[in-house]
Amino acid sequence: CQAWAGSCQNGQLRPQAQRTADNQCGSCDAGYDLSGTVCQAPYVLHGVDEECRSARISLGQIAATVQQCYQAVQANSECGDWFEVSHDGGLACTCYTAPCTSFFHDDGESLYYIQTTTTTTSTWTVTMTSTLS
To answer: What pLDDT, in 10s, does the model give residues 17-71?
Structure first.
């Protein structure tokens, strides 16, 4: 009998006794969300060399990575769900204060959207009636 093995990118594996397959995450590093058994960043790339036509705030030359820029955006209450990171060697991080609905080409910028997750819980009531004769 071979135990389930593997690795969990951006997190920690489930305890061995709880795994039903290889590579199942049980918890995630800060800034990542557990989606099923995978740790995912809560943002997605919208476009490379793209910028948004919306009010924005420069968060300065702080971001060496997309994850670091995302964390700076999360720390600023004025930032909305969109942000951009320079990918041309610069370290600029910018967030947008309003939704992005119009875009334009801008060399050296990658535009990201922060996904918001909504959890819906449904409650079902089943009534069973039995008639004995």
So the answer is: 999 999 999 999 988 889 999 999 999 999 999 999 999 999 987 756 888 889 8
**Total-model pTM:** 0.71
Burial 111-133 (b: 16+ CB within 10 A, else e): bbbbeeeeeeeeeeeeeeeeeee
**Measured between alpha carbons, how far is residue 106 from residues 26, 28, 44, 101, 133 in Å?**
39, 33, 18, 16, 78
Question: DSSP assignment of 49-97, as one string?
Answer: EEEESS-EEE--S--SSHHHHHHHHHH-TT--SEEEEE-SS---EEEES
- Cα radius of gyration (the chain): 21
Q: In whole angstroms, give the CA distance from residue 78 to residue 54.
A: 13
pLDDT tens digits, one per residue of 65-98: 888 889 899 999 999 999 999 887 667 899 999 9
**Dihedral angle sign, alpha carbons of residues 42, 44, 48, 53:** negative
Q: Is the dihedral of CA 48, 53, 54, 60 positive or negative?
A: positive
